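Title: Prediction job returns without error message
Component: structure pipeline
Severity: low
Priority: P3
Assignee: unassigned

Description:
Job completed but the reporter wants confirmation the result is attached to the right record. Sequence as submitted:
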Amino acid sequence: MCLGIPMQIDVIDGYSARCSAKGVSRDVSLFLLQGEDINVGDHVMVHVGYAIQTMTEQEARSTWELLDEMLAAEGNDA
């Protein structure tokens, strides 16, 4: 299974961006989204260091809620 993480773009420098989520920042390649209008503050789905799609803030928030629920359920199984 592949996992994509929703992140918000903080800084853009060419085809690279500094993105953050839940207090963690990462350098992310925007190379796969060359044809899209991407701006600071936008949300992207990140997989292995590449932004693979843009998403709305609500989509990012909903995804994080689901990921948090999965982690909580996993913690209860232990």
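Comment from assignee: result matches the submitted record. The two ends are 22 Å apart (CA to CA).
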